[in-house]
Amino acid sequence: MGAEQLGFEGMPRRLYACTPSRLNTWLDCPRRYRMTYLDRPMPPKGPPWAHNSVGASVHNALAAWWRLAERERTPEAAGTLLARGWLTDGFRDEAQSAQMRGRAREMVERYVAGLDPSDEPLGVERTVATRTDRIAVSGRIDRLDARGSELVVVDYKTGRHILTADDARGSLAMAIYAVASSRVLRRPCHRVELHHLPSGEIAVWEHTDESLQRHIRRAEQIAAEASAADDAYRARVPAPRRGEGGAIDHAPFDELFPPRPGNLCAWCDFARHCPEGRQAAPQKDPWAALPVDA
Questions:
Q1: Which letter, b or e, does each residue of 178-198 get, where b requires 16 or more Cβ atoms within 10 Å of its Cβ?
Q2: Average pLDDT for residues 223-246, to the nearest whole number?
Q3: Contacts of 37 (CB under 8 A, 6+ apart)
Q4: Residue 151 and residue 31: Cα distance in Å, rounded?
Q5: CA-to-CA distance for 263 and 228, rounded, in angstroms?
Q6: Region label for 101, one of left (φ > 0), alpha (ψ between -120 and 50) or beta (otherwise)
Q7: Alpha-carbon distances of 3 from 14, 18, 228, rounded to whole Å
Q8: How many other C-beta atoms can be found within 10 angstroms of the C-beta atom of residue 132?
Q9: Is the peptide bond between 188 and the residue preceding it cis, with omega within 30 degrees of 0?
Q10: Residue 273's CB: how many other CB atoms inside 10 A?
Q11: Inter-residue contact 25 to 37 (CB < 8 Å)
């Protein structure tokens, strides 16, 4: 019997399950995408990054602060939570870690001093999800606020780069979170905010329904490319082979997952497995993204 007789033509299309991070990884570098999401076992990563430890420590402290009883939500409590949960991976030495811990503590204390402890968020580290006829996308929001009749998506940032409204406008993840939050909670959500804790600056963008849908269509286009490559990968045997010294033989897959060498290669977790990336940019020290005087 043919596929049409079995009714396969009328079956719903399989949705591509993804996160904004997965979509952005495909955009940045298909080879890194393959090593992150498809190669099993995953190739060993490089050493952890100190700036990731800072970011995770700050995010964890702020999430825990909102879980305290309202009367306990003080700047000092935020600093204590930061110190207790401080992550030490990636720093040059204990002195550098201690210096950054002190800076991060000051940063979260200053930030929460500007918050109203009684202004309860609708969600902290909340997972939201939505789907279209092509993708099933999910992700975790740092904070979801209710302001009047609207929802606001808040994302904490701890890097050196000061953000602008263009960063908020162009963020695929933030737009997806806004759409997903609106659908889950049945309330409008157009405003997205990037809270840059080191500077105290807030980058804001007010989406329209049309601009949000443009981001969703873009996500679907990225997903279509990645999904087709996923299917082709799974249909191929063998999986990537290890050459002399454990090096990965990328050649059989580079048509589907080409490298995109550039400056970002200096920060890639898989640089050791990518000759093109190492040639494009020397690998950074694990603490290279910290403030220059750290």
A1: bbbbbebbeeebbbbbbbbbb
A2: 80
A3: 22, 25, 230
A4: 37
A5: 27
A6: alpha
A7: 16, 28, 21
A8: 16
A9: no
A10: 23
A11: yes
Residue corresponding to tokens 């079995």: 6
Residue 93 CA to residue 101 CA, distance in Å, equals 12
pLDDT at 1: 38
Task: Name every residue whose Cβ is closer than 8 Å to that of residue 217 and which is 6 or more positions away in sequence.
Answer: none
| DSSP symbols for the chain | --HHHHTGGGSPPPPEEE-HHHHHHHHH-HHHHHHHHT-SSPPPP-PPPHHHHHHHHHHHHHHHHHHS-GGG--HHHHHHHHHHT---TT-SSHHHHHHHHHHHHHHHHHHHHTS-TTS--SEEEEEEEEE-SSEEEEEEEEEEEEETTEEEEEEEE-SSSPP-HHHHHH-HHHHHHHHHHHHHHTS-EEEEEEEETTTTEEEEEE--HHHHHHHHHHHHHHHHHHHHHHHHHHHSSSPPEE-GGG-EE-GGGTTTS----SGGGGG-TTGGG-HHHHHHSPPPPTTTTS-TT-
Strand partners, 137: 18, 130
What's residue 9's pLDDT? 57
Instruction: State pLDDT tens for residues 28-80.
Output: 999 999 999 999 899 999 999 999 999 999 999 999 999 999 999 999 999 99
State pLDDT tens for residues 239-266. 666 665 567 778 788 899 999 999 999 9
Amino acid at 116: D
In contact, 23 and 222? CB cutoff 8 Å: yes
Neighbours of 95 (CB within 10 A): 10
Say how many CA atoms lie within 13 Å of 120 toward its Cβ. Answer: 6
How far apart CA 287 and CA 41 sit, in angstroms, is 27
| CA gap 34, 261 in Å, rounded | 15
